[in-house]
Amino acid sequence: MDLDNGDELYVMIHVKDALSEGIHDGDLIEMGIGEIDLNVRVSLSETEIEEGYIGLYRDIWTVHEFVNDSYVFIQPVSPSESIEYIKKKMLGNRLTKEQLELIMKDMGSRRLGMIENAYFLSTFFNPGFDDNELLWMTEGMANSGSTLSFKEFSKNGTVIDKHSIGGIAGKGITPIIVPILASAGLVVPNASTRAITSPAGTSDILEVVMPVALSSEQIVETVRKVGACMVWGGAVDLAPADDLLIHVERVIHLESFQKLLVSIVAKKISMGLTHVLIDIPHGRGTKVQNIEDVEMIEKGFKKLFDAVGIKVAFYIRDIKNPDGPGIGPNLEMIEVLKVLGQKEGHSEYLENTAADMAGKLMELCGSAQQGEGKDKACEILKSGRALKKFWEIAFAQGATEEVSEEKIRVGEYSTQVKAEKGGIIKMWSNREIKKITKYLGTPVIKESGIYVEKLAGDRVEKGDVLFTMYSSSQSRIDHALSVVNLNTLVELS
């Protein structure tokens, strides 16, 4: 059926069939077709579906392969014990390992609905979880779906990746780091997210030039062929409980520190990592507003990664700019290709940050001597090996052509925003950038976004162009202009 309910899996059955089975509108049922078993919600109709048939919504039949007129087994699902445990946590009580594992299992199998998931998410804020609960939940979340292994493709069993806690406009760092590391002979299975609170997630920008929704088998085959992948984690059954909680976070635009810890560590377990670099950007307009909070976050990650046997290093940076001048899927991919291709006018800020992080990871896993990692990363970039590896990864994931940055379209409608006074830029507000780009249509409208002309430390005069906005319609440009406040967007001295 050409229908989609968004966050939950739905099927449609005839009212008379529902009555005979004791099923009501919105009930959760177990559905079996061949070897596929799913927990789904029911929508009832007297006109849209024939008696004796079951209609599958788009988000089911686009993921699973079914044959029309197959026999379907359905039965009502009894309420899960997990609901009682969620209530228990909401009342301030501690949960056991078994209780948290069951919540994660039921969430991942969709036995819990979005309402129950939202209630559970609220317990991260109050009352919160102790260290043991966080560990048990992390392991349960990782085991709520598939886990992958790539050690057989590595000479010494080392499997690495980088992950940012996010909150920064611009996601061009990872698509530069991964091919650098893979060019150095390291195994780098990178699974990223789509945008949660930012103008574009890493997967949103990679999708401009390559498929990112790969199956588990395709991911393993890609890494076997080229030593790395850059995929959307939500397309495979990796920590599905986390993906469902992310759906709730997108609605409320809020994420707790403990949920951030559990989410990131669980995903790294499911990807079979041995080493990881955690990027912790801080500063006004980021997820970490105060430098005092950085140590707490670092300790939290270290404790949890140590507990699950993954070696971790941290990249702490004070944020004054977005990560690259282009903000929005297409604009960000243009900048990535400029850096990888070492094109004239490429972003030195983006290049330096990516090379430094890649170097830290090489030093962490012993691929480079301490203090020599960045030089090795820069050499790989300048030699063209990283660009070559980028396209090897893209083709292994299903890309059909190399796309030059000149061929990537930006929004048909644009306008320049100019400085109202002169001074030296002290910082850009990432929060304000995200607000503007949301009105422009990112990340859904990939051609939308902004291009920043001046960065922190640059002098501007009154009338200088600060940034250019792009979108698919003039009305979106006008809406974005209406929320631009240069006093809060750009701090001048």
TrEMBL record:
The UniProt record lists the keyword Glycosyltransferase: yes
**Gene Ontology biological process terms in this record:** pyrimidine nucleobase metabolic process; pyrimidine nucleoside metabolic process
Q: Which residues form the Pyrimidine nucleoside phosphorylase C-terminal domain?
A: 424-490
Q: Its GO CC terms?
A: cytosol
Pfam hit, one? PYNP_C
MF GO annotations: 1,4-alpha-oligoglucan phosphorylase activity; pentosyltransferase activity
Q: Which InterPro entries match?
A: Glycosyl_Trfase_fam3, Glycosyl_Trfase_fam3_N_dom_sf, Nuc_phospho_transferase, PYNP-like_C_sf, PYNP_C, Thymidine/AMP_Pase, Thymidine/pyrmidine_PPase
Q: List the keywords (alphabetical).
A: Glycosyltransferase, Transferase
PANTHER family under this entry? THYMIDINE PHOSPHORYLASE
Q: What is this protein called?
A: Pyrimidine nucleoside phosphorylase C-terminal domain-containing protein
Organism lineage reads as: Bacteria, Candidatus Dojkabacteria
